[in-house]
Amino acid sequence: ATASQPEWTWRRVALLFLGTWLAICGGTLYAFPSFEVELMKLCQLSARKLDAVYAAGQLGAGVGIIPGAIYDHRGPVATSLYGLVLTVLGNLGLAWALREESCGGVYILAFSYWMLQNGSVALYQVGLFSNMRAASATSQGMVTGIVCSGFGLSAAFWTLLYADVFGENLDRYFKGTAIVFGATAAFAAVALPRLLTREPGVKPYGRLDEDGSESPAASSPDTVTYGRQVASSSQSKAPCCDQLSDQPASSPSLRQILCNLDLWLFLAVFCLLQGVGSGLFIANLSLIATSLEIPASSRLRYVRLVSYCNFGGRLVTGFLMDFWEPRGVQRSDHLLWTSSGLILISGGLFLAPEAALPHVLLPALLVIAFCYGSNWAIMPSFLESRFHGAHVGVTFNLNTGGLGLAVLGVSYVVGSLHDAAATLQSPAAGSPSLPDESGFCLGASCWRNAFQLGGLAAILGLAGALALSCSESSRQRRSSLKAGSSY
């Protein structure tokens, strides 16, 4: 910002608060473990079918390309109204299904949960993208981390309301959240156009040099109207792929971005790591606790604590990226320690003796949640700085869409492994523990193979993160050499 124009004005502060609340409303997917056991019993679902419902919600969040495209081309008002319609319909659909025999079947549940989460992610993207557009280069990581932390805090907030306000009654919970989300979306549609007026002198996008100043990439891209990229003549003539990194001051075309290897390498790493965090651990948190015979009274506490760490990972990593980037640590480099954390935890749970698992499960889940939340802060910040804020709706939702498919696959495999282990637990097999009358698999053996699968996926993610780190370092060296030769 200029000396005469402060970076933080009342509009920016209000936008940040509204964006964080929209993120809290958009992250109810992670509250699923708080009621998954009740839903499983009420609707007579197997673990595989229960995971299919969760995966449908993750896929709904994953196809956020729909609200992302609406944001890019129609702005925050249309996106807010889209979120209003889908969150209300999804919640009311779930409430209706609860009154039907077997909840109307898994397809009704899955479709309603898909609508709810696709509408929820629309609210999240409205808050996130609007704040990303307004943020200066010096506060990109911080602003992204704060808004993303609201998404991570969502599970703790809605789990608390589910238990203390709605009395663990799913019908009241779904109807109540329909009212809250609808009112929030309507308010956002009215307020955001008034808050998104760009203050003069605030230059968004780009990375920070070591002295804390903005690099040439920090110059504003082509005209932005509520997120829509208006192509310039230079952009329309831009060649594909190779010249993207050689033109840091220009806004790259969508074709250039899609041809860039770094985008797809980051996508692969993100889907591997988050597929483990969401499809294995978060989706099955209550089922894992039940298998290890952890008291039911502890489940909601586990969900809240995991949500706090998800929130902490997003917030802390946002500040870490801004702090370390001027010192030579690229934003994508933080994937190295998050993937390492997933490897250590998955491997530790796979190797731990059965007697120790109930005691180490909560600390392990907290580390997983912190790493998972960190990756959600890294992703939009990396895309924003790497591609100079261009086509953020498309690049963000390529990652969330890929994650939705990854979670769908991981959840199906993990649920099948659980059901297979439950089937094998019989007196004839000489199993030390038997499945209870609800079909739960009891004992550490129910999840050993799933933990092993998570560790292998995280190892592949670490290999991809190393390759991305080398690519980014090489690009920065080339950029520095070209900048030096221009003097």
From TrEMBL:
It is found in: Membrane. Its main location: membrane. It comes from the Eukaryota. Residues 204-224 are annotated as: Disordered. It is a multi-pass membrane protein. SUPFAM superfamilies: MFS general substrate transporter. The chain crosses the membrane at residues 12-32, 52-71, 78-98, 104-129, 141-161, 173-196, 263-285, 359-378, 390-414, 450-470. Signal peptide: none annotated. One of its GO terms (molecular function) is transmembrane transporter activity. Coiled coil: none annotated. One of its GO terms (cellular component) is membrane. The keyword Transmembrane helix applies. Pfam families: MFS_1. Keywords: Membrane, Transmembrane, Transmembrane helix. This is Nodulin-like domain-containing protein. It comes from Polarella glacialis.
